[in-house]
Design goal:
2 copies of one chain form a homodimer.
Chain A lengths: L1 E9 L16 H13 L6 E2 L8 E11 L5 H11 L4 E9 L9 E11 L13 E2 L6 H11 L1 E4 L15 E12 L2 E8 L6 H13 L7 H8 L14 E8 L16
Parallel strand pairs in A: 3-10, 5-6
Antiparallel strand pairs in A: 1-3, 1-4, 2-3, 5-9, 5-10, 7-8, 8-9
Helix pairs in contact in A: 1-2, 3-4, 3-5
């Protein structure tokens, strides 16, 4: 049996998220169907973390075990030949037998794309949030600075009870870049709670719309309890951009928490 | 009656092209429906040139006449409110009564997007041509240089008999820019023949694939007759990017031919 690592990109528009949900179209279902059809063996696919319905991935990572004798390059070609075009395998590698896409992840990067202009470009519609009213990006950046670092993010998860273990995470990056009407929110952490990026985005968008001052972030972090200041931003602007692992040979030492966004 | 100028963007994926074709979904049908619903009056929409099925526009221009008393800004908002999200009005202006979107156009720019990588990104799929085999971009650029300038482009139109008048055009720009796996072909001319940009793209792609040397361009121009060296590249990579008009007050002097791409 060989353990394979997959690097994946997908357009999440047509899917009910990553995780299997019976016969509903999900990324996992399509991947497991493709692997079975190509190798002749069923294999369970384990991602670095599940993505929600409508969320996209540019750099998702997953692993699976297979008794197939196919070399990685052939598997790569064959999987892309049978997968639907909105799921693409960017790379297939033979992994060490103890590599784990979820437990070995030490860093995740998400990007949230906001089109801040009265007119929404007809291209890339499924890939951006449309915010027609002008956003105060400086206020959003000030709020983001207050959220960076190691904090208990219980106020920024959809359901704290769903979390295994505690809700403290280290946000290494949370910043905004504006290029014309496009605002890109980048979030990097050792792991994310359930819907944490969309909750951070929802709060920052409310700050950008003038509903709360940036300082509201402090009280939210202290409260460790979600309130109406934290709406969940829609999924279509969100991409799982990159997953970082320890250097080769160090992967087993990774202390990442499982991202659940 | 007021003449209005519309600046438009659309995702052509779901449409049978710009021009009315009975009840088939076309850009013109949706625009005329939207104008009728907003103003209460039917108006014929005249574009700078028709785009084919599946071709997109970032900077299409059109005009129409209407007895509406609505100011341009209200018309703008109202049209976007009723149009489907894959057609967006970027600007509405009151035009001079003799402004003509087609006859006054003096310059058109098209861009053709090619994704030249083994793996096709699942995002922007309707907006790029996928070419998995490595393309010789220098050879393509050398062929493009031979096509630039004033020539009879009869070999690069789908149907020379369809052309009104002669088939000579001035290609002010035809060049390629590669950024990683993305190749952008830009074509600027005083006007384009029917399917001319896709014919140029099809020929350049064949040169890039090593089927013919760049010098084949010379014989094609001389032959003034299309042959198998000139396939029509698919529509989804193509955008009508910009339409240029004479300076205000000079529009009536424009000597552009009507683009038909």
């Amino acid at each position: 049996v060989t353990r394979f690592r997959l690097d994946l990109a997908y357009d999440g528009t047509a899917y009910a998220g990553f995780q299997l949900q019976g016969t509903q179209p999900t990324i996992q279902l399509r991947l497991e169907e493709a692997i079975a059809s190509v190798t002749g063996h069923f294999a369970r696919v384990q991602p670095s973390g599940r993505t929600d319905a409508g969320v996209h991935a540019r750099g998702q990572v997953a692993h699976f075990d297979s008794p197939t004798g196919l070399p990685a390059a052939d598997l790569h070609r064959a999987l892309n030949a049978v997968l639907p075009p909105d799921i693409r395998v960017d790379r297939v590698r033979v992994a060490r037998p103890d590599f784990h896409a979820r437990f070995d992840a030490v860093r995740k990067e998400y990007r949230y794309f906001i089109w801040n202009h009265r007119v929404f470009e007809p291209f890339h519609r499924p890939f951006r949030l449309h915010e027609p009213r002008p956003l105060a990006v400086e206020a959003m950046a000030a709020a983001a600075a207050r959220l960076r670092g190691r904090h208990d993010f219980a106020s920024f998860t959809a359901n704290p009870r769903r979390e295994v273990g505690d809700t403290t995470r280290t946000l290494q990056r949370l910043d905004l870049r504006r290029t014309g009407p496009l605002i890109v929110l980048t979030a990097v952490a050792d792991g994310f709670l359930y819907k944490m990026v969309r909750s951070l985005a929802g709060f920052l968008l409310a700050v950008g719309g003038g509903k709360f001052p940036p300082e509201a972030a402090d009280a939210l972090l202290r409260a460790r309890r979600r309130n109406a200041q934290v709406p969940t931003a829609p999924p279509q602007g969100l991409f799982l951009w990159r997953v970082g692992y320890g250097r080769p040979g160090q992967a087993g030492e990774g202390n990442a928490r499982a991202g659940e966004e």
